[in-house]
Structure formats: structure tokens, C-alpha cells
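Extended Data, panel c. Modelled sequence:
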Amino acid sequence: MKRLYFIYGASALAALMMAAQINANAQENGNRDEFGNIVRGPYETNGLGDNWFIGLGGGINMLLDDGYDVKVGPSLDVNFGKWFTPSIGMRAGYQGLNFISAKDADSERLGYMYIHGDFLWNASNAISGYKETRFWNLIPYVHTGFFRSYGTDGSEFSDNEFAMGAGLLHNLRLTDRLDVMIDMRATVVNGSIHNSSGAVVLPSVTAGVAYDLGWPNFVRTSTIVGAIEAVNAEKTVILETAIAALEVANASLEAENMNLMKKNSELKKTVKGMEAQETVYEISYEQMQPLTVYFMIGRATLEDLELQHLDFYARHIIEKVNMNPNAEIIVMGSADSNTGTAKRNQFLSEARGKYIVNLLSEKYGFDKNRITVKSEVVKAASDPKMDRAVIITFN
């Protein structure tokens, strides 16, 4: 009965802490869009080496059995895991040292080790939206694995058992890579680990630190998805206005492309009949106007229409650069500062520039050594969508 009261009390405390955490997360606004709605995935697939973590902690545990007298023993906790999305992760770990079996008037100290696998669910990110700077993340999890008990004074091996249970992990952010971990776990195992019948519960509380390996954050593929999910009449008008503006910009680009085609035809007539080396130095690069390709908000890859613009430009204009050993291509990636964190915007501006460089070198065969990559985050822009772009110029 005492064990049942203990479990009820621990469950009530965990529920209270979860409610407090969810309420605290709801007050944060770094994970909300311009309409005040919580923004959730989808997120770009993280790399194989990203979002790994390793943790080390220590604390106390107890053994709960019928007729128990609570005794506290030390516990060591070592874990290694990975987050696959902002809400879903897994880890493998070792928990051990010893527990004190205290039944009736006898007390026995037993050593133990528990090799376990855990399925982690970050409730803070799942309910309140992902925010890389959040201080407190609440992470419920379930675990299962191999449990072995043995005497600590040279006695023979006692027992091997299958164990399972649940826990509540508190992740307190100190820096981008260092976190404080408070782990509350309950493990259910066969009572034969200390010569009892039925099942026993081994509660434990440990505290320690965790260090993040690889790149420790996630990039949302598009913030437009979240807006569409909560669309209403006002937002529909805003989206239609944005579409109209994009159509005007596309028409302008089409006109620019036609002008470039005309100039290209004139250049071909001018250099016709000249030797290849002479052709190289007679091309006027001042007549080649910069190309601008535009990205959707939060994206570092181009939509199909923009890919067509780049394809035409690369095949008819930029290829001329390879014919002049003195000519260089300058790729400027940019992002606007009106949405997202400064760190994320800097990442997007750099990623967009690298993406264009990779297209030019891998798809069209341009020499990377003759391409200069730059990046910028445009502040206080009157029209932010025009600054989510990459501009290609010549030098």
C-alpha cells in the first residue's frame, strides 16, 4: 500500500510540473509567427552527425517493495543519444552503483547495473513549438532494458531480469551546447533481484550535465505551412497580395531575361568569325546585368520557377565567364531581419549563397575558385520578401 501511495504522489507531482512548464512555454514568443500563432514543423532532416548528446549524472535511488522501509542508495547515470526531430529522440544509457533492500528487520546492500534504451518525447517543443533558446524543456520518456543485481561484498551473482518503466527528464539550457539534466525515473523489475516475489519499483533521481555534439539545432523548412493551417479571411487577403507581388516580380524578371537574350544575340554577331582567344577579351561584362533569384521565407532552396530563371541565365550568360580568365562571379546571399533569430537569419543567408554556388559548379560546371561567396542580413527592409534572395554579379 505504501508503494501505491508513493507512485500516486510522484505521478501527481510530475503532472503539476508538466502543467507549470507548458504554461511557462506559452509565454515565450520566439517560436510564434507574425500573427501570434505557435509555429510547428516540418523541419529539415538533420545530418547524421548532428543533434547528438552525451550526459553524465549522479543521484539517489530507492527500492520499493511490500513492507518496505525506505533506504536510499547512490546512483550513477551515463547516457548517449540523438534528437531526430525537435520532439522525438532516443538514447542508450547505463544506470548503476547500488540499492539497499530493507525488508522487515533486515537490510542488505546490493550492487546493480541497468543497461537501457529510452524513447524521448520533448513535450515543450511538441506542445509549445520549437525554440532553440528555451531555458527549460520537459521530456517524458519510456525505457526498457537488461537489469542485473549482485552482491557488493564478493557474494555470487544474484539475478538477471528484464526491466522497464518511465521517467521525466528536465533539460535546463546553459549555453548552445551545455545543459543541466535532472532525471526522475521509475524502473519496474522482477522482485527476484533481491529474493522477493512479484514486481518491485526502483525510483531514482539524478542530476548532471549533457553536452551537445555536432550541430545542435533544427531549421524549419517553411513558416508558411503554419500560417496556412490557421488561415482565415484576413490572412487569405495577405497571401493573395503576396502572390500578386510575386507575379509582378516574375514578369519583371521575364522582361529582363528577354533583354538579356537580345543583348546575347548582338554579342554573338559582334564576335562572329573571331578566334576563341580574341572572343574572350572582346566580351563586355558591363552589359551583363546582375541576376536576382528569390527564395521563399525560411527556405534555402529555390522553387521551380526560380530554378528556370537561373537555368536560362547560366546557359546563355554566365557560361561566358568561363571564357575569360580574368572574370569572376560574385554570389551574395541575403535574408531579412524581420522574421527569425539573428543566428537563423545569418545561417539562411550563408546557406542560400552556398546553394547557388553548388548549382553553378555541379550542374553547370563553373570553377568554384572563380566564385566569391558573400552573405548579409538586411535590416529594416520595407519589403522583406525582396531581401530573401541571392544576387549574382561579375567582377
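Residues 19-28, 223-227, 275-283 have pLDDT under 50 and may be disordered. This feature is highlighted in the accompanying rendering.
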